[in-house]
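Lab meeting, item 3. Inverse folding demo.
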């Protein structure tokens, strides 16, 4: 199989994005480019040159409508509800007909065999009390980290590439068999249950909780209601009208390029191939 270059990967991702955007427009589903994809649209009018993925964000209502109705002749929607070994609490639209993936990290099971994908992140209601929000966010972050540890434990036990990792996994499971036998999918269910409780409350604050990180994503709900179109790789895509405020929350001075040492693909441990 032939490995995709970064640019070929970007162009494959762009085709998936175009399909998703067309479906959303046809079915009155609101979306916004997110994270590095939004940043790329504003700063570069396209992909950040070294970026290798596409991110979309949707408010929970739009996300649920999308995940339940998305159909495509060329691509497939996956999440933890429809793929047994999927260890993520958000969604992906994948090209499984023309491409495949290989991860150099054996426990990165959620990315295996999906082909090129784009990520779909829901944005949920959170507490208007910032201290309550931070407590819940920290709990979700701990759960997400536990998910990663369990994936490493389960996958490394049979990892033929590293005798050390395999031995370490067996030691961990012998020390704590209850944790060792707790499947990562159960952690994802716990994540989703906490997120559902948070989203059930009415609030003027929102955050992306399905893939918690150290970024301080504490948004005003009012900033996620209006949309505008921006240029991205010669096409028009939707972003939240308050993109300047949102990008500043996540990246600070986002128009400033990062140091050269930090300009590398996010998914550098995954290789993408033509079938």
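The presenter then showed the designed sequence:
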């Amino acid at each position: 199989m032939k490995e995709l270059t970064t640019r070929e990967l970007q162009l494959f991702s762009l085709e998936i994005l175009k399909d998703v955007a067309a479906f959303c427009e046809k079915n009155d589903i609101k979306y916004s480019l997110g994270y590095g994809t939004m940043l790329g649209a504003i700063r570069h009018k396209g992909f950040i040159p070294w970026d290798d993925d596409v991110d979309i964000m949707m408010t929970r209502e739009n996300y649920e409508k999308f995940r339940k109705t998305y159909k495509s002749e060329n691509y497939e929607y996956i999440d933890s509800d429809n793929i047994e070994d999927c260890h993520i609490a958000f969604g992906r639209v994948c090209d499984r007909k023309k491409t495949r993936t290989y991860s150099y990290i054996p426990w990165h099971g959620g990315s295996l065999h999906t082909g090129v994908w784009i990520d779909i992140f829901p944005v949920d209601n959170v507490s208007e009390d910032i201290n309550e929000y931070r407590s819940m966010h920290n709990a979700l972050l701990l759960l997400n980290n536990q998910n990663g540890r369990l994936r490493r434990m389960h996958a490394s036990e049979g990892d033929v590439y590293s005798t050390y990792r395999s031995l370490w996994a067996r030691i961990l499971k012998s020390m704590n068999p209850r944790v060792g036998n707790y499947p990562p999918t159960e952690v994802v269910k716990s994540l989703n249950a906490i997120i559902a409780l948070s989203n059930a409350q009415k609030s003027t604050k929102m955050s992306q909780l399905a893939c918690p990180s150290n970024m301080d994503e504490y948004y005003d709900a009012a900033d996620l209601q209006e949309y505008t179109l921006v240029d991205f790789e010669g096409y028009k895509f939707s972003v939240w009208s308050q993109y300047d405020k949102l990008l500043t929350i996540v990246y600070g001075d986002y128009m400033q390029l990062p140091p050269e040492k930090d300009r590398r693909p996010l998914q550098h441990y995954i290789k993408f191939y033509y079938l």
